[in-house]
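wait is this the right file?? whatever heres the structure
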C-alpha cells in the first residue's frame, strides 16, 4: 500500500505571544483537529521558516501557545498555534479547536457479535468507530461498497463532526468536515464533486446511541436497533456451530484512549478499507 499523500499549503509571517487558545475562553493546552489534507508544522510562525513535519487530515494535536495577532492565508484569517510535541507552529485556519483533557479522550468502541450472516462488500466489515476529542468525533468509513480493478478508485473516507454526551445517550451530529482517499493512497482533492456509494449517508449523517445494561455491565446501542440483547447470550449462540440463527449485533463501550491511538487507528482503518 502506498503511503498516503496530500496537498500542502500555508504561509506568512507573524510575531507570537502566549494568550488564551481561542475566543470561547478555552485556555492552553487545547486541542486542534486538522482539516487540511496535509498541514505543515514549522519552526517559527511564518511560512518562510523550516518545515519540521506535517499532520494529516483528522489528526488531533495538542496546542500550547498561539501568535499575538492573526494573518490572512488563502483568504482565511487566523492565528498560528504551537504544537506540543515538536514545539513547531501550524496555521490555525486549518484546525478545529476544542478543549483538551488527557483523561477525557475516548474511543467509542464497537464489539460486533456476528455469525451465520451472508454478506459482501466493504459495509459488511465496517463498524462506526469514532474517537471522541473535546466536543468532536473522528471516524473513518468506506466510500464505495465494492472497489473494482480500477487503477484509481474512490476508497476510504474520514468524518469529523460534533457530538453531545448525555447521561443516557451519545448523539453524533452531522459531518462538518469530510475527506477521502483513492485506492492509490492519494487524497481526493474535490470530494464534493465525486460520486460514491456513501455520499447521501454522509451528507445526512446523524446517529444516536443509548446506554443500556446487561449482566456484563453497561454498553451503548444504536437507537435503530430498539431491542436490548444479552451480549454473553448472543456470543454463546455464535459459539454453537450447529446453530443457524443469523446474529448481527453491535454493542459499544466507551474506552479511554489517546491522541496517538486516534492518529494510528484512523490511518490503519483507512488502509484496511483500501
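ok assuming it is, sequence goes like this
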Amino acid at each position: 500500500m502506498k503511503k498516503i499523500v496530500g496537498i500542502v499549503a500555508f504561509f506568512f509571517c507573524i510575531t507570537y505571544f502566549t494568550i488564551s487558545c481561542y475566543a470561547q475562553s478555552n485556555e492552553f493546552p487545547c486541542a486542534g483537529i486538522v482539516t487540511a489534507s496535509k498541514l505543515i508544522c514549522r519552526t517559527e510562525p511564518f511560512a518562510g521558516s523550516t518545515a519540521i513535519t506535517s499532520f494529516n487530515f483528522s489528526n488531533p494535536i495538542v496546542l500550547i501557545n498561539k501568535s499575538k495577532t492573526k494573518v490572512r492565508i488563502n483568504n482565511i484569517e487566523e492565528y498560528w498555534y504551537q504544537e506540543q510535541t515538536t514545539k513547531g507552529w501550524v496555521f490555525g485556519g486549518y484546525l478545529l479547536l476544542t478543549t483538551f483533557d488527557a483523561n477525557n479522550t475516548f474511543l467509542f468502541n464497537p464489539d460486533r457479535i456476528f455469525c451465520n450472516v451472508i454478506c459482501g462488500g466493504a459495509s459488511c466489515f465496517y463498524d462506526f468507530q469514532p474517537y471522541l476529542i473535546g466536543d468532536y468525533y473522528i471516524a473513518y468509513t468506506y466510500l464505495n461498497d465494492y472497489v473494482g480493478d480500477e487503477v484509481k478508485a474512490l476508497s476510504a473516507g474520514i468524518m469529523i463532526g460534533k457530538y453531545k454526551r448525555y447521561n443516557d445517550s451519545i448523539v453524533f451530529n452531522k459531518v462538518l468536515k469530510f475527506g477521502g482517499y483513492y485506492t492509490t493512497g492519494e487524497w481526493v482533492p474535490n470530494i464534493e464533486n465525486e460520486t460514491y456509494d456513501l455520499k447521501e449517508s454522509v451528507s445526512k449523517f446523524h446517529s444516536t446511541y443509548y446506554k443500556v445494561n446487561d449482566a456484563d455491565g453497561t454498553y451503548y446501542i444504536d437507537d435503530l436497533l430498539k431491542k436490548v440483547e444479552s451480549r454473553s447470550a448472543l456470543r454463546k449462540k455464535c459459539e454453537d456451530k450447529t446453530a443457524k440463527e443469523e446474529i448481527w449485533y453491535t454493542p459499544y463501550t466507551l474506552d479511554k484512549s489517546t491522541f496517538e491511538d486516534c492518529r494510528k487507528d484512523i490511518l490503519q482503518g483507512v488502509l484496511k478499507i483500501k
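The domain at 8-99 is CATH 2.30.30.40 (SH3 type barrels.). so i think its the right one actually
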